[in-house]
Amino acid sequence: MRVDFVNLVWYNLYMYNHKEISNRLATAIDCALKKVDDDILRLLKEAYANEDNPRAKWALAQIIENDEIALAHNCYPCQDTGVAMLFVTVGQNATFDGSLENALTEGVRLGYADARKSIAHPLTRINTGDNTPAVIYYDVVDGDGLKVDFLAKGAGSENTSCVKMLTPSKGADGIVSAVCDIVKQAGANPCPPLLLGVGVGGTMDKACLLSKKALLRKCGQYSADTEVAKLEKRILDEINALGIGAQGLGGKHTALACAVEIAPTHIGMLPVAVTIQCHSARHTKVRF
What is the pTM of this model? Predict the structure, then answer.
């Protein structure tokens, strides 16, 4: 009985409150939707300073002005507030006073209260009216922690994302070529300059998930893995050599950053997924 009592007390100390989760997530989402990431704004300004093409320079100036106005007036930098994507890391010992998924869903509903509602039935196209359900991925880890990474994924860039199933013999050259082909096909549609999330390995679905998670990394930060970092730099250089440029007007800045995440894969395949994100990238981290 004593052991049971001690365990009961221990669990109660780490019980998460449904309402607190919802309210804190809602506040974080509302703030994120109205503010382009600081690192992206910095990269945009660097691109503007280094751009030689007059039309591209003009486009970059308009993007920067738009983002700064949104920040100054606490309004949305892009009318597409996107699909709410939640990447949830939860400790296996964590306990809750209700359904975690219900708490997260309520947080999204409240966070999008004043934002455009974009989620609809895929066949009838009837809008759900509150931007739910969110797309939620869970990672269960040791301990009792809870953290949520939020990413607003707009349709314009998502429509140009793609996965390629390569043979292993294609190697790094094939990966770079696949990414370049996808970006060339996208052209101006995803509103460059872009952020590129690339997933390599696993299976088709795993590679796609990795490409999404890559976008959560600090923008412009290269991988700690030396080989992966070399691949990221090579992809970024070759994408910018395409000359698509800001808003498709040419110039040196088709992409601002490229992040690659990898996973072990079968000896007979080489999945490569590319998630394209426009410059209006909005995401945040919530630690409970």
Answer: 0.91
